[in-house]
Specification:
This protein has 96 residues and is α+β, with helices and mostly antiparallel strands. The chain binds zinc ion. The site of zinc ion has 8 residues, from helix 2 and helix 3.
Length: 96
Amino acid sequence: MHSDLIGKIEKAKRYAQEPERVALDTLTAHFRGGSSDHVITLHEDHWACDCNFFKTWHTCSHVMAVQRMLAPMLSVQAKKPAGPDYVSEELLQAAG
Ligand SMILES: [Zn+2]
């Protein structure tokens, strides 16, 4: 019995090193921003944030940060840069 559980714990440790095994579909997160907190959501590959910047640009530092943090667990679509067309992968890379 005990060895069964220990085996699962060991497996969990290995899995935890492989985040790409997990695919996030839906997410709600509270983000502690520099000046205030924000709520970020991911639903059907579309991101949203309740900050003012997002309302205009359809992306923001909060969404971009979470995209980076969770990249291995996101679909190809959810990983794509959000916002206007000129917000490209190249732009994000160039910005560091
Ligand atoms: Zn935001």
